[in-house]
Amino acid sequence: MAGPVKKLYKRNRSPGDVIFDTANVLLLVLLAVITLYPFLNTLVVSLNDANDSIQGGLYLWPRAFSWDNYHYVFKEATIFHATLISILRTVIGTVVTVFCSAMVAYTISRPEFVLRKFVTIMFVLTMYLNGGLIPNYLLIRDLHMIGSFWVYVVPGIIGVFNMIVIRSFIEGLPEGIIESARMDGAGDFRTFMRIVLPLSLPALATVALFTGVFQWNSWFDVFLYNSQDVNLSTLQYELMKLLANSNSNSSMTSADAFANSANASANFVTPTSIRATMTIVASLPMIIVYPFLQKYFVKGMTLGGVKG
């Protein structure tokens, strides 16, 4: 049946349909190129010899392939321990934030909770009003979390935007499922754990992706609270320091570096090459994780935004 249907479809297409489909394909290809090219060019610069990169003209393939940029980044002994801390804060912070945000979202989604509107407004106000950097620092100091790993987890334990996404999704679930669990004797926590959480997987995956990216990319809190403790430093903070060092050590201009490239050492790097390498190193874990969460992410964003 596929053959006759395909022939009938082709026969019924007008010249306007062909032009429209062709224009759509060209537009999508153009958008794909615009979207992917910056990242691909960054990858090319990171894999190209830094001396050669100064000349410019790099597009889709390394002109002088080299691992020197990555050797320079990973030669620091603290990088690997910082990567472990980044992984731990991303995993622990994401799990704790998603679970706690989901519990709050379930609570304020229940119509029998008489203060649900008031509590929701109080949470939403925190998105627009902030005490500022100094009060936040004083609060963290008074909580004795400076110099502690938990400073990466506790301050963001409830994300208001994440909570709203999950609440909207929970409100879209059939009420009969929750009522049937209540009739079977399940309490609120058991209903939440056994019924609501499994059904809210798309919204939870969406929030987990948001939170995971934030935790992985965050470095400013390390600078504020744990900059003196190397054992609590994260990958992003170490890469930031590495880039700052490469900028301060780069005393020659690009023209001078190119003129002296013949006498430069094999491990010569530039701030541009280090920046490109850092971008790839920092982005790669999220790029690997995203395909596994993509279907839940799309579904969660679609269904979670039905209700406000």
From TrEMBL:
ABC transmembrane type-1 domain location: 83-293
SUPFAM superfamilies: MetI-like
Keyword Transport: yes
Organism: Cohnella zeiphila
CDD domains given in the database record: TM_PBP2
PROSITE patterns named in the record: ABC_TM1
Cross-referenced Gene3D superfamilies: MetI-like
Identification of the protein by name: Carbohydrate ABC transporter permease
Membrane topology: Multi-pass membrane protein
Highest taxon listed in the record's lineage: Bacteria
Biological processes, Gene Ontology terms: transmembrane transport
GO cellular component: plasma membrane
Keywords on record: Cell membrane, Membrane, Transmembrane, Transmembrane helix, Transport
Family recorded in the similarity comment: Belongs to the binding-protein-dependent transport system permease family.
Localization (cell): Cell membrane
